[in-house]
């Protein structure tokens, strides 16, 4: 039907209301782009500075890695240097932003931050990985911190929302541990070790019938069901 150039990146595409939303990189800038699904025409772009400091190697490509998240009239995005943005879905206008690395001392991943935003009720939840900031929830309307908890280091994984016996749980595959939290306040419900070399727990856990949770990683981590 159509094809077009976008730019570098590994971000997947979010589709909603006849539009496509994704992220690319152009030089030292990351770009959030909205496309018309039927034609591929650019509807809007939002670009921001995202240079890599010396601690990043980015040997596997420059990112972005995370996929945008659509929530009502808002779009939430996370870039390879940990910059979180909330944008107006229709126009791309900036609503608010946070730098998860500089503001909250998140775990720097040398190949780039990769967590996709997860929406829960009126919050957006991110894996950050700083002391006391391992996981954080921000208010969707203004970016205010709703809660921040724990000291786990971060991984490239994205969190998952599940329901166990009628209870909502946030599952996060961190650096060397799999954890289950109460998504309303971040309280720890359970944890299980899952070490891998360099904390490369990359994939998102898979929730299945019978209350079974499957996790898997390379670099010596292996696979297990909880």
Strand order of the largest sheet: 1-2-3-4
Helix fraction by DSSP (H/I, runs of at least 4): under 10%
**Oligomer kind:** single chain
The 3D shape can be described as globular
Distance between the termini: 44 Å
Radius of gyration (Å):
17 Å
**Total number of β-strand segments?**
19
Give start-end ranges of low-pLDDT stretches. Answer: none
Instruction: Please identify the structural class as seen in this structure.
Output: mainly beta
Strand content: over 45%
The biggest beta sheet is recorded as: 4 strands, antiparallel
Number of helices: 1
Mean pLDDT: 96
Helices and strands, in order, run as EEEEEEEEHEEEEEEEEEEE
Short description:
The chain is built from 1 helix and 19 strands. By secondary structure, the chain is mostly beta strands.
Molecular structure report:
This protein has one helix at 100-104; strands spanning 14-16, 19-26, 29-36, 42-49, 69-71, 74-78, 83-88, 94-99, 118-120, 123-130, 133-139, 145-149, 160-164, 167-173, 177-181, 188-193, 206-208, 212-217, 222-225. The strands form five sheets. A four-stranded antiparallel β-sheet has the order 1-2-3-4, with no helix packed on it. A four-stranded antiparallel β-sheet has the order 5-6-7-8. Strands 9-10-11-12 form a four-stranded antiparallel β-sheet. The longest helix has 5 residues, at 100-104. The mean pLDDT is 96. The protein is mostly beta strands and 226 residues long. The N and C termini lie far apart (44 Å). Helices cover 2% and strands 47% of the residues. The protein has one helix and 19 strands. The chain is globular and about 45 Å long.
């Amino acid at each position: 039907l159509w094809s077009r150039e976008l730019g570098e990146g590994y971000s997947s595409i979010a589709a909603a209301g006849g539009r496509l939303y994704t992220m690319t990189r152009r030089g030292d800038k990351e770009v959030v782009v909205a496309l018309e699904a039927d034609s591929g025409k650019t509807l809007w772009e939002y670009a921001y500075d995202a240079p890599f400091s010396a601690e990043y190697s980015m040997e596997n490509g420059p990112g972005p890695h995370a996929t945008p998240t659509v929530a009502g009239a808002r779009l939430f995005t996370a870039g390879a240097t940990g910059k979180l943005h909330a944008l107006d879905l229709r126009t791309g206008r900036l609503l608010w932003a946070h730098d998860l690395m500089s503001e909250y001392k998140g775990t720097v991943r040398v190949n780039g931050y990769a967590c996709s935003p997860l929406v829960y009720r009126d919050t957006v939840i991110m894996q950050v990985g700083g002391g006391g900031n391992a996981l954080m929830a921000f208010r969707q309307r203004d970016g205010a911190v709703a809660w921040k908890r724990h000291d786990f280091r971060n991984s490239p994984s994205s969190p998952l929302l599940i329901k166990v016996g009628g209870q909502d749980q946030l599952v996060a595959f961190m650096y060397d541990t799999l954890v289950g939290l109460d998504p309303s306040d971040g309280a720890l419900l359970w944890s299980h070790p899952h070490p891998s070399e360099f904390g490369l727990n990359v994939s998102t856990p898979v929730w299945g019938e019978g209350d079974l949770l499957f996790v898997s990683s390379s670099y010596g981590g292996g696979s297990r069901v909880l």
